[in-house]
What we know:
Elements: H1 10-36, E1 38-40, H2 41-44, E2 45-47, E3 53-62, H3 75-87, E4 103-112, E5 121-128, E6 139-146, E7 152-159, E8 165-168, E9 174-177, E10 182-191, E11 204-209, H4 214-228, E12 233-235, E13 240-244, H5 249-260, E14 263-265, E15 272-276, E16 281-284, E17 289-290, E18 293-295, E19 300-311, E20 327-338, E21 344-346, H6 352-361, H7 366-378, E22 382-383, E23 385-388
Parallel strand pairs: 15-23
Antiparallel strand pairs: 1-14, 2-11, 3-4, 3-6, 4-5, 5-10, 6-7, 7-10, 8-9, 11-13, 12-13, 15-16, 17-22, 18-21, 19-20
Amino acid sequence: MKSLGNMMPLKKIRAFGTFLSIVLIVLSSTVSVAADRTRKLLDLVDIQGVRSNQLIGYGLVVGLDGSGDKTRQTQFTSQSLKNMLRQLGVQLPSNVDPKLKNVAAVSVTATLPPFTRPGQSIDVTVSSIGDAVSLKGGVLLQTQLKGADGNVYALAQGSLLVSGYSVDGKTGSSVTSNVPTVGRIPDGGIVERSVPGSFQYGQNIVLSLKSPNFTTARNIVESVNNIYGAKTAWALDGAVVEISAPADPSQRVVWMAALENLDVNIGRTPARVIINSRSGTVVMNEHVRVKPAAVSHGNLVVTIRESLTASQPGSNYGDGAQAGKTVVLPQTNIQVDEQQQRIVMMPGSSSLQDVINAVNSVGATPTDLMAVLQALKRAGALEAELVVI
Length: 389
């Protein structure tokens, strides 16, 4: 057993324990930050030759409860119905116009996922293109879905699922919820033709970064080369990375399965503020900074009230003159109200929370916030890219 004189003093032990706690906190924070900057390779890139394709078609929805196309402006619905009946062996006279309220002309859209083979099912979306009130309860007749090249890749048919509804009263009043003129058919499309891809061919696999960044492209190359050897991957620019791949398709699938789960440190994204002027939405990323600035924001409210008054002259003048006529005179009252706002000093900030606190100190509403941010950008106090969408 060691003597007490050989042991570390109590004060030094506490000091060492405090220092060790600080080191652990710093290390844990560093690990947390590093983890936040790490993503799977599959989340960062798109694989060239592996993509979806959009399909579109024109068809008819039948079985509607009087909520289909009605007016004369939607004559294409009647023409489409007559053409369909003619193909089924029913010949209508040329002077007959079948104005059926239970039929609606629709556009049918779908997305063909990559590697889809004939016989598989896909979801389709059906949208009215006429004056139909609702597609609820309707059935889509067989519709060809074509790609951009004009070829038929799928056939769609089935009962619609419509989440909205519309109810009309006899006095002209109506109640509408959601959008009753758009519906979906889960697994309503059957694939008839597959789209050939380039993934199985070529010596290299091309990866396209979803958010082009030179640092991220370099980190992808380093992560792949560190595991699979030098010159396995190389970057063409900040958006494209090429990787050597086996020629055998089965081996290429195994190769890509291993690459998809590879951890990659992402690069720093540019400081950016996104403003949606239509909805009043403002979004800032973590890199936004503000330099010291003085801001004063107030609202100027102009109220205009118009009213009508009657000028009624007297009826007895005493000298035999005729009585005057009543005249309607407009009156306009304009009131200007300017709210008094003090000047707020916005200190320089080093974090997104400081920016939020500084902007909130001005007391601006979400709509006014857009004007404040634009003014800060023009004054050179906002260190971020301002994007208005």
